[in-house]
Task: structure prediction
Amino acid sequence: MKFVGLVLKSARRSKRRTALTILSVALAVFLFSALRAVLQGFDAVSAASSAQRLVTIRSTSMIFSMPTSHGEAIRSTAGVQDVTWANWFGGIYKDPKNFFGQFAVEPESYLRMYPEILLSDEEKQAFLADRTGCIVGDGLAKKYGFKIGDRIVLQPGIPTYGTQDYPFTIRGIYRAGSSAVDNQSMMFHWKYADERSIVKGEVGWYVTRVADPDRAVQVANAIDQKFANSPYETKTDTEQAFSAQFASMLGNLNVLLGSVALAVVLTTLFVAGNTMAMSVRERTTEIAVMRTLGFPAATIFMLVVGEGVLVAVVGGAIGGVLARLVINAEALGLAGGFIPAFGVSNSNVGVGLGLSLIIGLLAAVIPATMASRLKIVDALRRVA
Amino acid sequence: MGLIANYNLRSMIVRKGTAAMTAMGIAMVVAVFVMTMAIAQGFRGALVASGSNENAILLRKGATSETVSAVLKPQLPLIESMPQVARTADGHALASPELVVIISLPRASDGHPANVPLRGVGPRAFEVRNTLQFVEGRRFTPGTREINVGKQAVARFTGLTLGSDVKFGGVAWKVVGIFTADDASFESEVWGDVDLMMPAFQRNGYQSVTVKLVDPSAFDSFQAAVGNDPRLDLKPNRERDYYEGQSETTGTLIRVFAIFVTAILSIGAVFGAVNTMYAAVAYRTREIGTLRALGFSRLRIVTAFLAESVALALVGGVVGCIIALPVHGLSTGAMNMTSFSELAFKFRITPALLAGGLLFSAVMGAVGGLLPALRAARIPVARALREI
Result:
């Protein structure tokens, strides 16, 4: 510990250079934490998805509907506790650019199925009682400044829902109890959309709760078996498998973001390593004098490594804290639609700090080795 | 200039370790820039290549994409009879009524189901889309359960090879031909007879009609003719504009990501260049003093050091482009937000993109070298010469 002062002293030798290096490490850790947070956002959705809930869609694809009679058939399958259903509405709020999820749901059973949709009792009752009522997530409410009692109008985007505009009254603003529920969506009565639809009684997907999550796969197979060879064949999966599939359609995020993160680390390594090498080269004479005074080679090695680590970790701390403050779902408002809410967590900051430590170590190893192996006589003779 | 350029070049070689590290930092930034932009370009390219200037696509008024559009069956003959629509030698209008639905097929790489667009087309679709070429097999025969598959779709999903049976819409369909389409998005699709697709998916109308115009300039009069017919609640779009619009959401997302990442990364690399150049100036204080004493002007010193920094960065830029080049032509997939299905495309590195990468590296070099170069020029001659 007695050498801390010496390390600090040499870090201050060229203030500008140290500051620039600290800032480059800070930027790298900032970027790294942000990328990690995005990936974790996607993973969190899969992780929070319930293994107890099954999603049944038409085997051809999600955008084809099934008749309401499927609901009763699913309910009578052994091991099924509860059933609800929903449709994708795909309406336009003022401008097609204002994209958010709109779901026509069977309100009572839907709220029962998703206890993660947190709604006060009064709001819930008001929503259930109003046929043209809707509930919106707090994220969405914030984005468009929605308040309870507001009237909003959606223009149908899918021809099946007719051509007339749909007015709604906001009866509740819900919070999301877990990542399985998106707080940027809107839900309203399935009946309201069905009344105006050109084809009646169409359901986009069914959600089923099974009594025993260990038997989820068997129940899913039993449901699909019921509709095999009917004109409306189905495909049932656990919610977990379903959201994993959805994320994989966005492309191979892991590889893309991972390779960018690698490039970030390499760039910083080059910058930091270069600085350390420069700083050692400048001090060649100084180091030779220290060696003459009796400092062992190991101590010189540790001094240089200590300086590298110090500079990198200070940078990492700045970058991590900055990322923690700037990159969070509320400050950015980027989430919504297909992008899950994401934010830099304390553990992201921890990983970033660890990363900066490694950068500091790696960047300092070669210059430190150079410094500790200096031949005193040569070094003293050299004119810098 | 010759002397000073030579001097800068040689001092760069003397400090090759530091110079190489700085150049590599810049190389990584340029590589990331070129690769991420190659994704954005490839995605956009695949969709833009789908549209031809000679074609027009008709959608329901207000519809932003095929999936939310509807064209009624009786409207087709009205469109086909318009004089702006090109015809075959035997008098058939070059118009293709189409319906795009999405089917789910297991992806070859991981076996997970993915959304694949299935396009029902009219019998003359291959004359309307004349970039399509068969690499294997033949066209499907209208009125039969035969399908053609794009080359990218064959590679990305299992069970689409020539001769195999694919089950969707309750029945089996036979793959009789595989086509390419100049890397256009059609290569990710499955094509079949629209009149058989409709009953298979319980649809009773088309989604869009694509026509080949007699001449690209006939578009305006075609648009006016459609607008004047009260029986047609449709809006014609130039096919190229339409597909360009389709690429916007995802394309912009990728581009914003690319710019965000490279911007932050480049600041780090510029800091590296600043450090290196300051050190370069500091080492050579005496030499700079000598040059000034010999009569080289301040401006010459500034330009010399700036040039050194830019040259160093350009070396990095070239290395970065070389690192990025191998990804060119690799195919990958991403979800097309507007059609909700997977679109396969190739990383596309164009000469313009490479030039952009080099320019970017030069800018990083100039920004990083500016302050150190000014410092070099301001060094007082007498003091510089006295320095050891």
Q: What stands out?
A: Residues 4-46+252-381 of chain A form one domain. The first helix of chain A runs from residue 4 to 11. The first strand of chain A starts at residue 53 and ends at 58. The radius of gyration of chain A is 30 Å.
